[in-house]
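Collaboration report, partner site 2.

Our partner group contributed sequences for two proteins of shared interest, and the home lab folded both. The records are reproduced in the order in which they were received, starting with the first partner submission.
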Amino acid sequence: MGLLEGKVAIVTGGGRGIGSRYCLGLAAEGAKVMVADINEAGARQVAGEIGGASTRVDVSDEQSVQAMVEATRTTFNRVDILINNAAIFTELIQPRKPFDQIPVEEWDRVMAVNVRGTWLCARAVAPIFKQQRSGVIINISSGTIFSGTEGFAHYVTSKAAVWGMARVLARELGEYGVRVNAITPGLTSSEMVQEVYPSEMLAARAQARVFRREQVPDDLVGTVVFLCSDASAFTTGQTFNVDGGAHFH
């Protein structure tokens, strides 16, 4: 038996990149996974690889999020885990710019997906978790909240928000046996990041770590599995920094 045998997980943004690795890792430990992504084709492909299910979701939209949770419960009869992974990494869609040159529309879109989306997803699973008096929520934050990385203030601010949100949720859901934690990944060489960052820059980042190599998506999977499993049954409200020693937290 795997560590997550009998558990049902929702992974937002699971149709590609790091999110797809979370799906693979959870499934390998026995979980049934709902791969949720605005990229429906990507979600369907990942679900096919792991024997899970997929659904299209726009996490910034309340009705879409509710439909995602209902689809999961209809398909698997329960929900045990929510990985709040879906986010706009602004450097993938827009070049870096000083905070006072970010258009209001761009700022609002990042906040709608990264912050409101995380909140909506947590709110949607909360009644289920309260009723069954168990559940796990993991908010994927970012190591940029420690470094204050220049050039995309909206992204860094949004990731600081979901970090703080995890602490509030841990307090408010603790009496129901629900665990809520946050992970702060370092810059991770997913397929999308490799498309944006030149290899020399990724190599330079590697040299700034204690472990002098690039961080890859699989480096995050073990922490996610641990936090979803009963091995972390007495752990909540915590932040797990996984970056190979770029920051000490």
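Second partner submission, folded after the first:
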Amino acid sequence: MLLACPISWGTGQEGDVIVLDGEEWQLLGAPLERLDSLTYHHLRDILGWESRSTGNWRGYVAYWSVSDGMLCLEKVVKYDEDLIVEKVVDGEEYLVSEKVATECDYGTVCGILEKYVRNGKVCASWLSGEMIAGKGGLVRYVHMGFNRDYEEEIVVSVAQGTASLSQVYHNRSGLGPQEDNRLDTYLKAFPTDGYGLEKGRYLFRFKYDSESCKWIAKLYQPPVLEERDALEKDFTDYLNAYNGELRDFIRGEWTSSRVFSFPIVI
């Protein structure tokens, strides 16, 4: 079970950080958001967390480690209001806005989360489920919450704070930069003659059907078109004849969750 946070984030979010063998990994989750509501809001009010960016509605980044088999909180860094500072560039003075991050007092955090403190550290014993930790370049990205994958990933499994780590997975995208350009050229070459289409922009959306193991094309624009059925069928057949690999290899499995849109201008 992947951990889901109670807040619905409609844009891509900065994750927490987990330090493993001295390396920082992006933790695609926010364990503190899973605290009970009263404790969480008390923590938020005392530490002054406020959203300063659409990319981090929480207003903080927590740093974690796995210590003595437990997921432990190392520190919390909060974002303060942007400060106007003076900078000199090529002899010219400029006033610029800078984001300021400050570390929260760990003693205060421990005081609020006293019942979770063990050997001087906050251990996430309120938490059970799985989270993904990643590093390297992005392989897949959806502009919502933590819906993305990195070149290297580890599954962090937590059972009432007790943490275990999977092997390191090496992910890859079926559509790398060169393959993306090749597919783009291929789709633009789709023959539109014979449909009686008027000049304009035709927007298709492609989705992989796991039952038929085929890609399906749907025409989204224009909304009304007599040739829609024939155009969708022929474009579906055309796309499935493409000999490139469109699936992603994520955590040891081929996945076809990718949905993409493509416009053709006639």
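Feedback sent to the partner group on the second submission included the following. The two ends are 46 Å apart (CA to CA). The chain is about 15% helix and 45% strand.
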